[in-house]
Design goal:
- This protein is an alpha/beta fold and 259 residues long.
- The chain has one domain (6-255): Spore Coat Polysaccharide Biosynthesis Protein SpsA, Chain A, CATH 3.90.550.10.
- The chain is 40% helix and 18% strand.
- It has helices spanning 19-33, 52-58, 60-63, 75-85, 105-113, 137-140, 182-193, 212-215, 217-232, 234-255, and strands at residues 6-12, 39-45, 66-69, 90-93, 99-100, 119-121, 124-127, 133-136, 165-168, 197-199, 205-208.
- The longest helix has 22 residues, at 234-255.
Length: 259
Amino acid sequence: MRRPGLTIITVTYNAGAFLERTLESVAKGVAEIGGSGRIEYLLIDGVSTDHTLEIAARYKDVLDIKIHSGPDRGLYDAMNKGLQLATGEYVWFLNAGDEVYDRTTAGSLLAALHSGADIYYSDALFVSPEGTPLGLRSEVTPHSLPEAISWKDMALGMKICHQAFIVKRELAPVYDIDNLSADLDWEIAAMKKAARIKCLDFILCRYLLGGLSAQRRRKSLADRWRVLKRHFGWGAAVLNHVRIAARGLVFYLKKGKYW
């Protein structure tokens, strides 16, 4: 049996308020490509006590969702479980509330994957909890998105939204489950392994603002320091955090806010 070209992984815990957005967006893309055979969908649940699993069950026939519900040690532990269970050539993480950008995205992505790059990335559209578009990440944050990138470009933080970053499963690192900036660490580690990284000319996702890092900002920033120090060295990490602060101030003065 031919393995799927892509595994989409969604991690949930009491995500009933937003999960259907994610599932519906994937379902539209699957319908556009004529079925789910080329896309594997994994839902890794932390034993939700709301209606998360009921919502997921409604999409089992449409998406052929594989639901795995059990205790975990947090978001990144659950994501590691998803990596272990995935069988697709590439993996794509979409959190509950995040969406595939539109119904043509899945087909465009599957076509792009034939070029065989190790990593694909693009921009992400920020949306509010109410679903209101807030702008592209490259426009509403200080993180511009280059058309060519390497791991060294991550010295000032996360240039690529995690939900707009797709990597070959065989290259995908394990997440550090004790670090709130583990997504940054994961991207850098994957890019270090990659021989070819390709920027897509279409938007991959709609990103729901308000994730774990935003909710625990102080620890997230401390953990980002640990990540950048590990990959770039202590001295560079100090200098780059000064640059990050200066860049953020300039952006705030120009835009009047900083996401």
